[in-house]
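Task: fold both queries, return tokens.
Query 1:
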Amino acid sequence: MHWSRKATVRWLLQPALALALLASGCRGAGPPAGVAVRTSGCPRCGGVARVGALPKGDLAECSGVVASAVHADALYLHNDSGDAPRFFAIGLDGAPRGEFGVTGATAVDWEDVARGPCGAGGGSCLFFGDIGDNDRERDGYALYEVREPDALGGAPRALSAEAISLAYPDGSHNAETLLVHPVTGAFTVVTKVKKKKESARIYELSTRPAAGRPATLAGAGSIKAPVGKPQFTGGDVHPDGAGVLLRTYSHVFFYPMAPDQTVAQALAGPPCEMPAADEDQGEAIAWVPGGWDYVTIGEGDEAPIHRVSCQAP
């Protein structure tokens, strides 16, 4: 299969309207009737820029990405199902910066990674979501909490994980989006739908279970993509808690979040439509710390890394 290397922003409107949407941080054609898209209070963004590519080798199916809070200009990534429990560190340009095996974990179908406060001892932790279930037949799911490595580079090494067993209150679900609140540490999962008319479900876990105890997620509403492909494939909460990015195969959306809101409450409001790259099997998205820029990555050998530069709303 030929993997496209071009990044395009899907601006298909008349020039005057396109400029107005750019000023508001939104893009693209209008939403279907009855589906709201925010037109004010949106980040002000430029276009999509290719800033690098994944290193050749073991990252052919990038499924999740998140930026480091400890190491400047570093991203953590992992593959989709079929890989071992491991993750990689790269620079914002794609330069390799480390490989890490995860002990105490299995990798049935890792679909997303998020960063947030560690459950014990303080510091910054990574949370790998083993939440994929294309056939919707799994009895349980898991999050793996791994403290951010204190150093990057060098030979591959192992880091230990604390497992958090998860179950839904209403059966099995397929999901590719894991979100962690940067202050409270609450977990949010957004399911992946099969059909365009379906609404994705939102589930939250506000309190961590005791060590070794399974946790049942609580239903927290539903959500639909306002335009484009219906499947949510990844997301990230802004490091300052000011909003949430969700992506689909075709679009990127920003949901503003107030300081007193949960992630699910933020996702209940209308989003801003943001610039998005044309990526093959696009599933990974992450904020770049220190501002309002974000990166997206699709699947494929040496897949391009795209960055969008934005200013605060």
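Query 1 returned. Query 2:
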Amino acid sequence: MNVSPQVPQVPQVPQVPQYPPHAAQPSYLPYPYPHPEPVASNASPPGASPGASPAPEPVPAPAAARTVRTERQGPVLHIELDSPATGNAVTSAMLDELLAVLAVPDPAVRVIVLSGAGRDFCLGGDRDELFAGLDQDPTGGGIRSYGEKARRVCDALTNSSAVTVARVQGRATGAGFALALACDLRVGADNAVFRLPELALGLPVAWGGLLPRLLHEVGAARVREIILTSRPVGAVEARELAILQRVVPEQDLDGAVAEWVRPVTRRPEAALRVTKTLLASHAAATRLADASVLDAELMASVLAAAHYTRGLAAQPPAH
């Protein structure tokens, strides 16, 4: 009896998509992120026989509406949250856009200025998106992914070799508070208001590593009172608490930012980079065990439990 020899199966190596996946280089980014070079339509792939049909070019997915705008001015990179109709609410797509800029740093950038379009700096995370994600995955998988992106964005701001500056006007709520606090220098308009309403909304203060940064910058006693009462903190008090380092009239915000940018861009590049690293290292040492790595898990667990409870309450009573 003839037995056909077993042909060993060649394991398929999964393709690792470039970040962001299946997206063309956005034209507004000041520098390219890693992206595969497209294959010319009239070129044959290596090893193909002459006359063979060329492999089809990949068709990029349609670009989503952009919620972040960037502008490069010499060694200064301006990043603006650009969704004023929503109060610059932080969506998963916005975090992707921020990561596309911050995760591939340009060594020629000495200062990053983070601002928000419209009346308010940022009104926090997009709760509609979070709850819609729970409808799709009641275990909170989408929220974990969102929370991990948030932590990466805030860590990228804090650990950037460039000096990061937050330009704050109007309200900076929840996630907006966290984004501003992740920056090295923070200037606010006299109408700036900071607030952490998470507890009043049934959420933990677990977004982007906000809590350990706030404890380090402000102090445990004051932070405890701000979180437990969910009260707003105006610009003058924010400066007294070191949430802001400077307060100016709103029309003077750009001038105040420029006063910080000018001397920083004149500093020797190597000395500036090492000093930023030292400052970030000493700040991290004061946190002992940094539990912010659990932020995404905590947020997902609390929201998933609340979602499950609401689902039970909506069910008709058993007979």
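Both queries returned. Flag for query 2: The radius of gyration is 24 Å.
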